[in-house]
């Protein structure tokens, strides 16, 4: 009986210690941010806003690029059949019904049929430049966030370090090491937060660049196919 009571007491004690440690860990991040003062709170808030902006732009552009890359595999075959048979209006209607950069480039080329190939090619290139601009809309903001977030976090750490050393200087060398250490590691949380935001934005930016390049290559391939169609002997 005594053994059971002792075992139960030890289990309850262990659970209480674990709960206390867990509670301390839950509060530690919040406590570090709050203990950093108004400067740390402001910088963490700015980084949080930058993270929200980066995530919004990433997912908005990702869905837009995925939608732009979807096109019927038989699209160019249908365009070829319509143009070869002289059904220009049917080809234009097909392009109008297909919402994609490839369709819009093809429509631009069809509208120039009858003019020199150089003029048609130039018109397609100009339209392609506009389509690429649309695909890359706001993507540069991700690159800006990726570069600015770590610097903003480091700024918070520098400010925290200045305040810590100022406390040491004004205390006449009597400042407690515990409070100084706490202020320093609290200040460094802004650098960690800045690096996290910067890494997320950097990865998102590069992923969007790769996705955009695939759509651009698709546009170029279909533009070449269309020009080859016009070069075919009648």
TrEMBL record:
Keywords: Cell membrane, Membrane, Protein transport, Transmembrane, Transmembrane helix, Transport. GO terms for cellular component: plasma membrane. GO terms for biological process: protein import. The chain crosses the membrane at residues 37-59, 141-164, 184-205. This is MotA/TolQ/ExbB proton channel domain-containing protein. Pfam families: MotA_ExbB. It is a multi-pass membrane protein. The keyword Cell inner membrane does not apply.
